């Protein structure tokens, strides 16, 4: 993982895979197509994205965070927010479709463990005139131990010629899935770890980035 001290504004103007740690409020402009950005956000920060070409962004956090994503130029944004907490935090994701024919797919997964209290506020905006835009949200929080959770999925759609969908789930892992894995000779602990990893690793991750996620997940697996 690259430890980079970032200026307040960062621009990606060539395609590629990039891995960053952020510990302060930052604006990120994505101007090239085929950018894959893997983030670890620390402290309580705000990240503003200006998406001018299609991009995939995967963010790991254990803290409060506010994400504002502006999508321009018929771009497509695939955004993954992975949160793991044993304390009281709030994550907010705001997606603004600023041009016609823009697409956003926002997936937020959270794990609340011990006495964790996780709140997700996920908001999608398609203003009038942004025809043929698509705004999708899928948010899930798995509660472990005494963890609490709340999801607020909101769609603010002022354009009839658009598509908007959202789904939300809070609760434990499905006991039927755990039971099924156990019937295949997998121990309950191993079954839990398989579900946990599958829940948080929705896409293929760079090895050095995946190791950061693994170190956080180990705290849950070893609790």
Summarize this structure briefly.
The chain has about 220 residues and is of the alpha/beta class. The protein has helices spanning about 175-185, 190-200, 205-220, and strands at about 10, 15-20, 25-30, 35-40, 45-50, 55-60, 65-70, 75-85, 90-95, 105-110, 115-125, 135-145, 150-155, 160-170. The longest helix is centred in the last third of the chain and has 15 residues, at about 205-220.
Topology summary:
Elements: E1 9-12, E2 16-22, E3 26-30, E4 35-41, E5 45-51, E6 55-61, E7 65-71, E8 76-85, E9 88-97, E10 103-112, E11 117-126, E12 133-143, E13 148-157, E14 162-171, H1 175-183, H2 188-200, H3 207-221
Parallel strand pairs: 1-3, 2-4, 3-5, 4-6, 5-7, 6-8, 7-9, 8-10, 9-11, 10-12, 11-13, 12-14
Helix pairs in contact: 1-2, 2-3
Overview of the molecule:
The chain is α/β, with parallel strands linked by helices. It has one domain. 17% of the residues lie in helices and 52% in strands. It has helices spanning 175-183, 188-200, 207-221, and strands at residues 9-12, 16-22, 26-30, 35-41, 45-51, 55-61, 65-71, 76-85, 88-97, 103-112, 117-126, 133-143, 148-157, 162-171. A 7-stranded parallel beta sheet has the order 1-3-5-7-9-11-13, with no helix packed on it. Helix 1 packs across helix 2 and helix 2 (188-200) crosses helix 3. The longest helix is centred in the last third of the chain and has 15 residues, at 207-221. The two termini are 26 Å apart. 31% of the residues are buried. Residues 1-5 have low confidence and may be disordered.
